[in-house]
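Appendix B, example 12.
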Amino acid sequence: MKTVSILACLSLVLAAAAPAAPGALAPTAPTAPSVEIRYALLLSGRPAGAQTSRRLPSGEWEYHLEFNDRGRGPDEITHLKLGPGGVPASIEITGTDYFKNPVAERFAVAGGQASWKSSSEEGHAAASPPAFYIASEGAPELIAVLARALLASPGGRLPLLPAGEASAERAGAIAVKTGGGTRSVQQVVISGLGFQPFSLWLDADGAFFASHDGWSTFIRDGWQDALPQLIAAQDATLHQREAALAARLTHRPEKGLAITGAKLFDAETGESRPGTTVVVAGNRIAAVGRDGEVAIPAGAEVIDARGKALLPGLWDMHTHLSAGDGILNIAAGVTTVRDLANDIDLLLGLRKRWSDGSAIGPRVIMAGFLDGPGPYAGPTKVLVDNVAEINAAVDRYASLGYEQIKIYSSIKPELVPAIVARAKGHGLRVSGHIPAFMTAEQAVRDGYDEIQHVNFLFLNFLFDTVKDTRTPARFTEVGKHAAELDLGSEKVQAFLRLLKERHVAVDVTVNAFEGMFTDRPGQVPAGFAAVADRLPPQVRRAVLTPQGLPVPEGMDQRYRDSFQAFLHMVKALHDAGITLEAGTDSLGGFALQRELELDVEAGIPAPEVLRIATLGAARVMKHDDERGSIARGKLADMILVDGDPAAKIADIRRVVLTVKDGATYDAAELYRSIGVKPAV
């Protein structure tokens, strides 16, 4: 699941593409509350915490943010003093972040200089002209403060600190209703914080009312019944913007497409065949053969691919989608994704828009999420505690076109066989985390088809230490002990044989653990080193802010060694003939590129890694009759790469063209549309 700081979640990497609509700008100012105001936090529609806001006698503002997301979550106090124009004169944030790391972030303007310092950065700049400091941590209400300052500024624009510029526009007011009455609220759309514009809602007096990004929701407590109205209004502007981008950036060759001179990667054999021509008619591959031996239809658009590799579209087998992930994935050559937990309505809507072409995005395979109730329940409304509830939930997922069921950590172990039986009765795969008080071996024997996350393989041998996998101990204890496990021991080899015998696949997501175990304050995270300089300024800053686990004193090298043990496990799985999947559980597109690099670093040859991420994934999901390789009659999902990833896996970052369902997308144009510098 996505696990970034709440401000990053709301305003940076994972923002849900709410577009700006034309409208007059007018200054607005907040009304100081005379009492404390409480905002409820919902994660995937379920209560998870709160933000409280109050004005201090000094005139400063104090915000307290606290929430619980499966044992994780911040507890932060933000103190804010406003200067002229509603721009912060000082900000102080203390407490603990999402992973319980200490937070001490400060910003201040004094003597004509603005200065800031946090665990990951430090800097200063001239305080004139006024600029708005974007905090790395802190309360989501800081974004509402930014919205007010932008609306009050000339042209609705302000420079940002440490870098960038933001703008804001009004996107219409609506009257929301709840049992307590009716209130007029204004949608404000901010651009410049992330890959996509970000929406939030202000009261008529300018006070923060709500924000919703599809994953997390903050709303004035007592007004939760108004959420459907807010979401509908945001969706309307979102869909308008998506449609405009799709119309501008999607190209459908009217008389066919021919790609000539390509070095074709054959996912069946792992070989590369230079001098290949591929012809596309409609959304299907019409012909594949040697240059000069394949007839090119009259009027077809011809792409000279000499010096480039042509591969099947990539698959990301572990996503939790939001609207902004569509362009990120297509630009990176990811033409199919599997979503392993999401709001049902949100996911169905994304899948429809990406399928019918009204928005840009990959094909979507849906996995239905099940968890049990309790303090560590996952962010879902689908909680089951008995067989009847299981049957109803699985039946509904099957009726909606889901192809898989994912089991989460709070499911009672004794209920796993019932889930497996009902799911397989519908022909659905079964996978998941390993529930609390259960081992991976037990889950396999109960009928799992695959296991999510490589850490659960290590936990199989740490059961005496970590029986409750609902808590962050499933990360921290593995960080402390994974390096101690002898992968050549009989107990490990016996487990690997069991996985092989039961045809159990493993969705390893090693890129996610690289950040958890090796990110350190003040250092560029390895997972983003290759792309950091291409990102929009505030996104770059967000990904360079470590989101790793707290490292106990004296355990720095051990955590690094444990991550290396993860890579050794990946190689052991491959050598044992166990099916591996390439999934990310992280940022769309870029994270899959890193996942493939790490698989090669683990010792798997690059052609085999590419096969895993194409035909291998299609075979796992039983879609290999139409996807996964470049062959006559299959769907036209392909990518053109400036380089040869089969020889140098890092070249997978150099996608220049993506073909999805016969439509073509220029990767550089896609990246520029979201503020990313093209790779080539």
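Residues 1-33 have pLDDT under 50 and may be disordered. Residues 438-604 form one domain.
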